Prior knowledge:
Elements: H1 15-23, H2 32-45, H3 50-55, H4 57-63, H5 69-73, H6 77-84, H7 93-113, H8 116-122, E1 129-130, H9 144-155, H10 163-172, E2 176-177
Parallel strand pairs: 1-2
Amino acid sequence: MKKISRCPWVPVNDPLYVTYHDTEWGVPLYDDKKIYEFLVLEAFQAGLSWRTILHKRAAFKKAFKDFNPRQVAAFTASDVTALLDNSGIIRHRKKIEAAITNAQQFIAIQKEYGSFATYMWSWVNGAPIQHTFHSLQDYVSYTPHATAWARDLKKRGFKFLGPTVVYAHMQAVGMVNDHTDSCFKRHAGQKHR
């Protein structure tokens, strides 16, 4: 049986992480609700490992109303207090408040562009940027595209979405193809989700 070659950062002893890499990471995403989910999760990841967030993803999904931006945008101070008491998620007041603020701004962009996906993909001219990575040393924390987009998001009132977090989001939702050249997903005909 031939061994599957994956990106070098994938912890192969973590089935949840392997499944995430194999089925989600880097696959172009156009569904607004899922895009909002990744914006929330990436913001909560700031300063933490993706593994931590991934293993709390189900609890985040429940706590943030299945990542429905309209419902999250309507959260009140009592909802924030309840979230701060929820041991299943990362209990960080500023990140919780950012998820609410970002939901409100997300809806404003939907109104302006027809969908958040349309706005998001405009930052890469509608198609994934193809990077060529051979090893872990080739990965970068952010790019000029991520810096420019983060600046626009900040101008629009988004929180906890600086260039590094935005670049992690771009990788997750397939705006960039950062699978290493030896990874089986690199040329796997990335269908959108």
